[in-house]
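Hi there,

I know you've been waiting on this one. I reran it after we fixed the sequence typo, so this is the corrected version. Both the input and the resulting structure follow.
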Amino acid sequence: MQLKQFFKPIVCKACFKTFIPLSLENVFENREKCLCKHCYEQMNPNITIKRIKGIEHMFLYEYKSYFRELLYRFKGCYDLPLKDIFLDYYLNILKMKYYGYSVVPIPSNESENIERGFNHVTEVFKLLNLPILEVLEKNKPYKQADRNGAERKEIEKVLVLKEPIKANSKILIVDDVYTTGNTIRAAVCLVLKYSKRIKVLLLAKNI
């Protein structure tokens, strides 16, 4: 009897093709993967850990064509089911690594959240099953992609902490794409007032 007979076919949420997960990881995780191996590899996975200004940053992917396409489909075309694909192959290890942390997502512009019906960053990282503290906000509409390098530093004045964080909590700051790092640095500075135990997790790096 072939091993694949023990697994039922699954439809990949990215390419919509049917695949059969032949990994024992599916058994041990007690969950089904939603991303086929081909799509995962096309997303240019490249786990990288760097210390930036003394803070550990983990990146999961390179910000290249297929990843960009899927991220745009998710947050630009409001394809909410795609929220599950980005952490799919990393979920167990991330849950273990960040056990005991609380997630602080970088906020989107409120008008964009209202239009799409969700904060795309929050939706992705809900899969970690960690407490989510939506304590950061932008005090005015601000989109990094519309600004040059010098103007992007204005995020330090735009990003604010709307409520305090419990002192000395273990905080995981999360975002989708790291480009200049200005937004993450601004978030870290705000959170440092309450806790020195901070790590950063990003889907992709564009540097």
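Quick highlight: The first helix runs from residue 24 to 29.

Best,
R. S.
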